[in-house]
Amino acid sequence: MTTEIKYADVDGQVSEILNKTFVTSFRNGYLKANDVVLPVYYRKFGQRILDMEIRDDDVWVCSYPKTGTTWTQEMVWCISSDLDFEGAKQFLPERFPFLDHTPLFDYEKDLLEKPDLKLPLYVLDSIEYINRMKSPRYIKTHLPYKLLPTKLKDQSTKAKIVYVARNAKDTCLSYFHHCRLLEGYKGNFDDFCKLFTSDSLCFSPFFDHLLGYWEQRNDPRVLFLKYEDMKRDLRSVIRRTGKFLGKDLADDQVLALEDHLSFESMKNNRAVNYEPVIEINKTYNLIDADGSFMRSGKVGGGKEKMSQEFVKLFDEWEGECLENSGLSFD
Ligand code: PPS
Fold first, then answer.
1. Whose CA is nearest to atom 19 of ligand 1?
2. Fewer Cβ within 10 Å of end Cβ, the chain: N or C?
3. Is-above-0.70 flag for pTM?
4. Over the stretch 140-197, which tens digit does the pLDDT of each residue have?
């Protein structure tokens, strides 16, 4: 069980590429925390996260970035709240905060330079925001299993974890667009594929992330989902998740939730589509890029966008990393 974090430098060449291609005021370099790539700002928070108190009625949604986290969060929140679509109008990060938000985005310099930039507590200190939340708490994290709070992994807690995974190529393409839109990435897609497959991006190594949770899949407190299954048969995933959360959903509830969770519906829903964040980034010149968070919502786009060389590289890499694990993607 991890109770302390060992920090190391990111390889010098990788660090140089990351610093050159990710250009924003809120990112000041990278480190490795127990071999996981994270921003240097994480060092200030890592131990606080490990030492966090956990509540038995917590529900955690965990994922590598861009694998369907927001979709899963909205599904989990709506099921848990007995389909309170009125309550779901509240901004998702308020009702389902992102634990690692503050370690990921260091706004200290921006706050000094832009005194009218008013940021909420879930941005300024996401850990404290979560500590102060009323129960039941719903918590998002991109941290790999080994960096989760120690007490969340303790057998004595009843807190639940829903993990969502997505195939590597689509995750990479979605992460590329995300990094341009929200994290100041200025490089091209080929360079991003190189960073992704060399496990140099935040929250990597990618397959270790998946396997860390996959190994927990038989724990009754853990539900392992796949984005591709949600696309193919959302109804079944809603029912499975309902069962896991102790909610027996009626047929009309499943249909209503399926509608609420459709890509079109979520794309137009400001509570979940992150448009308010994109607008703040523009207003305060934190990022200069166009696009939308709810981008395409498809399976297979990554393969279409990549060169044949990268498709081959991704396939070989996946084959090696997932060999004998029992985990596979369509
Ligand atoms: S984040 O920033 O890491 O939390 O992003 P995350 O929510 O994990 O992933 C965003 C991708 O999920 C897609 N998405 C959906 N697809 C289908 N249906 C619905 N309802 C839906 N909601 C979100 C979103 O479009 C991103 O994928 P891409 O491939 O970029 O479109």
1. 263
2. N
3. yes
4. 999 999 999 999 999 999 999 999 999 999 999 999 999 999 999 999 999 999 999 9
Amino acid type, 119: L
Domain ranges of the chain: 7-322
Centre of ligand 1 from the C-alpha of residue 228, in Å: 12
Q: What angle do CA 182, 69, 2 make, to 5 degrees?
A: 95
Catalytic residues: 142
Burial of 2 (0-12, 13-18, 19+ CB in 10 A): middle
The listed CATH number (3.40.920.10, 3.40.50.300, 3.40.50.720, 3.40.50.12780) that belongs to domain 7-322: 3.40.50.300
Mutational test site, ligand 1, from 67, 71, 170, max ligand atoms within 8 Å of CB: 71
**Which residue's CA is the closest to the ligand 1 atom numbered 4?**
69
Range list of β-strands (E), 166-308: 222-226
